[in-house]
Amino acid sequence: IRASGKQACVTGAGSMFRVHLRGEAPRTYRDAHLDQNSKKLLAQFVDGVLEAGVMLTNTATAMLSTAMKKADIDRMAEAVLSSLRRLP
To answer: Which of the four, 3, 54, 64, 83, has the lowest number of CB atoms within 10 Å?
Structure first.
């Protein structure tokens, strides 16, 4: 995220994580609520990651697995970075 120069953060527990297109993690449901512009930006991000061959849910949530290899993690990181860089 830092390498992209964009405002984003990651929250999660265990193997599940979610990317938020904001500088600070939401602490309440109201913090996590997205306005129409934020929804559009998130959709662009998720679509960009998918175009790079990695699937996230429409909320930018995903899970890691012990079956994943270093190459899988690197591919996911590259997809996230590429998509973040393409955002306005």
So the answer is: 3
pLDDT band at residue 43 under the 50/70/90 scheme? very high
For 55, the token pair is: 């699937």
Neighbours of 31 (CB within 10 A): 11
For the chain, the residue count is 88
Asked if residue 84 lies in contact with residue 4, where contact means CB atoms within 8 angstroms, the answer is yes
Query: Each residue of 26-36: pLDDT tens digit?
Result: 999 999 999 99
HEC profile for 15-81? CEEEEECCCCCCCCHHHHCCCHHHHHHHHHHHHHHHHCCCCCCCCCEEECCCCCCHHHHHHHHHHHH
